[in-house]
Design goal:
This protein is an all-alpha fold and 43 residues long. Helix content is 88%, strand content 0%. The two termini are 17 Å apart.
């Protein structure tokens, strides 16, 4: 769930600029969501 939310936030922030920026920030957000989601589960 955190992965989806982070990806969506990245997409929304990048969509204010253009499509390619939205895609890149969505991938970054998804990666951060995976990282912190895993940390949260291990905690």
């Amino acid at each position: 769930m955190i992965t989806i939310v982070c990806g969506w936030i990245g997409w929304y922030a990048g969509d204010l600029v253009n499509f390619m920026t939205a895609f890149i920030l969505s991938m970054v957000g998804t990666g951060l969501g995976l990282y912190y989601g895993r940390k949260l589960v291990q905690f």
